[in-house]
Amino acid sequence: MRKKHKTASGAGVANGVSLEEPKTTREDWRKKKKELEEQRKLGNAPAEVDEEGKDINPHIPQYISSVPWYMDPSKRPTLKHQRPQAEKQKQYNSSGDWYKRGVQEHTVAMRYHRGACENCGALTHKRKGCMERPRKAGAKYTGMNIAPDEHVQPQLVFGYDGKRDRWNGYDPEEHMKILEEYSTVDLAKCALKAQKLQEELASGKMEQVNSSRYQGGEEESNSQTERDHSSEDEDKYADDIDMPGQNFDSKRRITARNVCIQEDIAKHLRNLHPNSAYYDPKTRAMRENPCANTGRNPDEVGYAGDNFVHHTGDAISMAQTQLFAWEAYDKGSEVHLQGDPTKLELLHKSFKAKKEDFKAQQKESILENYGGQEHLDAPPPPSELLLKKKRLAARFSPRQFLGCLTFRGSFGRASPAVQDRASPAVQDGVCSSQFCSHRLLAFSQGKASNNTPLG
């Protein structure tokens, strides 16, 4: 039987007709699938199709296109599970939706309902969030004066753009109402002003100087009234204008900028010498006098540096007051220069007066204990003594310097006490010889020659 079967199968294969397809192994199936994927990537084979008939990109990996077993048991390749699921998507409100403000429901319940506010009886809030005055007996127990329900605001959920929309909820019609109100007020003002003008003309208080001004018709009169009205508004709000870099003059009705006159010379151009005063371009400050090396008087110069301004007027006294305020605050006094300047000024004056009194008392006590008032009352010395030239320094040769060292004493010793010139006592450290004394005096005055030996 085995031989017959072999011959029959061999005859079928020899004739080119296979009765049954041979079973492929797992490796053969993987090889075929891999070859098919390669052909699809090259475009030689048609791409896979999902359940909706859409082609699946052959370059998408299998772990993305394959469906998990718990989602689709058929295991058909698809990309539906990779797309956003409709049931999980948030629904956002449009940018035109907004909360309603100031809306109240006027439907009033006739009796108290369970779950309503125990205080007022409204169904839209509880007793904890009730904004009415607490009643002595709430609506839950009396069933009377039940408050109407408030308007329940919708729960709006906005997306990224809706959350950051600055104009969301803005109603331009509200602004148009404000414009209409202002225009009505302006028309009423113009009518009132025209009526006042007619009354003044009729009473003779106002004379028509230029009659041609009033012959231009109704349009010119309206423009004139508008101009007068605008000028009055400028005068009205002139005191409130405080803008940096501008100065408003209500009398002249002009706005002048506080800028330098273009004819003025800049700080760094007043002296072009490289060793002149330093100009800081960042702070635009020149603290030193640019004309200091020119020999001109600072009072005659138009600009003498920023420090010249800092040391003039009350700048020094202001700095002293500020220093006194800091020292007083450190010692416990509640004073401040900008917070309470009057109190600080009075305290500073009393402090200076007490300081002067203390110095005077201290001086009197010292003079009383030790004396010396006659020296303070003595006349000043003559100007010849004050302006006397210094003596010339004595010049010694090395030989003379060695000769001076042979004297008793040393030049490094402290000078002895001053004694009377008529005293016969011999001073220590000084040669007692009259000749040596004269020679030393000559050397000290620079009259002796360098070659003359010391006696």
TrEMBL record:
One matching Pfam family, short form?
A: Slu7
- BP-aspect Gene Ontology terms: mRNA splicing, via spliceosome
Q: Which UniProt keywords apply?
A: mRNA processing, mRNA splicing, Nucleus, Spliceosome
Q: Name one GO molecular function term.
A: pre-mRNA 3'-splice site binding
Question: Where do the segments described as Disordered lie?
Answer: 1-94, 202-248
User: What role does it play?
Assistant: Involved in pre-mRNA splicing. Required for pre-mRNA splicing as component of the spliceosome. Participates in the second catalytic step of pre-mRNA splicing, when the free hydroxyl group of exon I attacks the 3'-splice site to generate spliced mRNA and the excised lariat intron. Required for holding exon 1 properly in the spliceosome and for correct AG identification when more than one possible AG exists in 3'-splicing site region. May be involved in the activation of proximal AG. Probably also involved in alternative splicing regulation.
Record-given protein name: Pre-mRNA-splicing factor SLU7
Provide the species name. Answer: Geospiza fortis (Medium ground-finch)
Q: What is the lineage of its organism?
A: Eukaryota, Metazoa, Chordata, Craniata, Vertebrata
